Amino acid sequence: MNFSHSEQLWDESKRFLAGGVSSMLRSASKPLPLFFRAASGSRLTDVDGNSFIDYTLAWGPLILGHSHPEVVNAVAGQLAQFQLLGAQHNLEVRVARKLCDVIPCAERVAFSSTGSEAVQLAFRLAREFTGRRKILKFEGHYHGWPDGVLVSYRPALAPDSNYDPQLGSGGQTPSVVDDVVVLPWNDLDRVRELLKQHADQIAAIILEPVLCNSSCLMPAPGYLQTLRDVCNQFGVLLIFDEVITGFRVALGGAQELFGVVPDLATFGKAVAGGFPLSLVGGKSEIMDLISARRVVHAGTFNGNPIVLAAAEATVDALSRDHGAALNRIRRHGDLLMSGIRRRAQDTQIPLLVNGVGAAFHLSFTTRTEMRSYRDTLDCDIPKRDAFLQAMLERGIYLLSDGRWYISAAHDETDIRHTLAAVEECLALLGKPSN
Predict the structure, then answer these.
(1) Are 361 and 17 in contact (CB under 8 A)?
(2) Is the per-residue pLDDT at 158 higher than 80?
(3) Which of 60, 108, 372, 410 could form a disulfide with 269 if both were Cys (CB 3.0 to 4.6 A apart)?
(4) Stretch 261-277: mean pLDDT
(5) Residues 64 and 71: beta-carbon distance below 8 Å
(6) Catalytically annotated residue among 55, 142, 373, 397
(7) CATH number at residue 408
(8) What integer pLDDT is reported at residue 433 of this predicted model?
(9) Any residues with CB less than 8 A from the CB of 186 and at least 6 apart, and which?
(10) 273: closest CA among 241, 318, 240, 305?
(11) How far is CA 272 from CA 4, 48, 241, 242, 369, in A?
(12) Given the residues 134, 137, 269, 283, the one annotated as active site
């Protein structure tokens, strides 16, 4: 494929835009960050005229696909009325009611714009409600980029590393690690041991219920329910970070999928079908700390009518016909996962597929199972990058870390074309080098 126009724009972008991209993770794309001029359904077209089946979906938000007509029409209709008020409107009430109906833990919701904001609010609520300061998180889990949460996301590790909190960026305030405790995921014994000794300091446990940001690792059987039970025992709040899993693995998120209800949950990405909306949902006794003015929650763009119009259209589309769109997403994702596994076996390429149909990950590894972040480091990164490059050349656009997202716009033709490309690329990787 020819990427000459993207190359020109990339060179120009680096002159004016810090890092050349608006979110630094995008710069990892190979052979370079592509520039696009059109998108519809499951397809992207770049500035060079190349067409791709898109499995990035803007890093997850586009659950209905690009420019879904119901979302576009809802936003256009709202724009004709008003775009921003800084005051109340009926759409806030309608969308809040619908979200409380579909999210198991949500007796109240509070709107914000990004997942990072939502996590900050959840932490503030948890600390005020419990009167405790520390947050327990798990290594490799991502909860946003601000100082207080960007801890031990992708830490550099020596073979004998302990789990001391590690800052994720230059310029972070070093003291934030004093309020964070880090443990390995899927290890209940360590959680129990910590809480037996220090529960009076721990306000909340936060986790991605499916570890989408680190190879889409699944919780061990019974793990989430036992965390729920342990939190109840020690008076610790349980927070699900559902910024990715919310609306994607089920309309009510992973808490619906696994039948485990947290005290608080953060949602984002897919909630507004591609528009910037996030929220915290939780028990009324915790959320009412906001109305009592004990916890500050502010923001000019909170409750933005444009994004709420998109959210209402997204909820309605995903709810219709007993969740037919989500069922289709899961079915197509399952077909891809099983098809990729089968083709890897046929070519004898060591490959592990983790996750659920709506969001999964490919790891080139000899491991047969991954349970925690450190397991994900045992992978062949050059082989993954070669696979991604070969897929791109065949018109399949994937995230640079090996993650796949499926939308309601992907159809069986997309799946067949994609699996044919997978077969070619794995066969290419399996050829002996000269």
Answers:
(1) no
(2) no
(3) 60
(4) 97
(5) yes
(6) 142
(7) 3.90.1150.10
(8) 57
(9) 217, 219, 220, 223, 371, 372
(10) 318
(11) 34, 30, 17, 14, 34
(12) 269
Please report, rounded to a whole number, the percentage of residues in the chain having pLDDT higher than 90.
90
> What Å distances lie between residue 26 and 16, 178, 398, CA to CA?
16, 31, 12
* pLDDT 10s digits, 59-87: 999 999 999 999 999 999 999 999 999 88
The mean pLDDT of 386-406, rounded to a whole number, is: 97
Largest CA distance in the chain: 70
What is the structure's pLDDT at 159? 60
Residues 285, 329, single domain; the answer is: no
Residue 205: beta bridge partners?
A: 136, 238
Residue 241 is a catalytic residue: yes
Catalytic (active site) residue 269: yes
Task: Give the domain CATH number at 260.
Answer: 3.40.640.10
Burial of 174 (0-12, 13-18, 19+ CB in 10 A): exposed
In a shared domain, residues 101 and 62: no
CA distance 242 to 122: 12
Cα–Cα distance measured from residue 405 to residue 380, given in angstroms and rounded to the nearest whole number: 21
- Same domain, yes or no, for 168 and 245? yes
Closest CA to 206 of 218, 190, 224, 192: 224
The amino acid sitting at 77 is G
Torsion angle (degrees, nearest 10) of CA 51, 56, 62, 64: 60
Q: Are residues 117 and 243 in the same domain?
A: yes
Residue 420 and residue 340: Cα distance in Å, rounded? Answer: 10
Q: Where does a domain end: 318, 352, 377? A: 318
- pTM given for the model: 0.95
- From 54, 241, 263, 375, active-site residue: 241
Cβ neighbours around 409 below 10 Å, total? 23
Give the range of the structural domain holding residue 89, as residue numbers without chain letter. Answer: 69-318
Q: How much is the pLDDT for 10?
A: 85
**d(C-alpha 185, C-alpha 241), whole Å:** 14
Least Cα distance to 110 among 262, 255, 244, 277 occurs for 277
Is residue 252 within 8 A of residue 259, CB to CB? The reply is: no
- For residues 191 and 336, membership in a common domain is answered with no
Tokens of 105: 């833990």
Among the three residues 270, 300, 318, which one is the final residue of a domain in this structure?
A: 318
Question: Which helix or strand (DSSP H or E) is residue 408 part of?
Answer: none
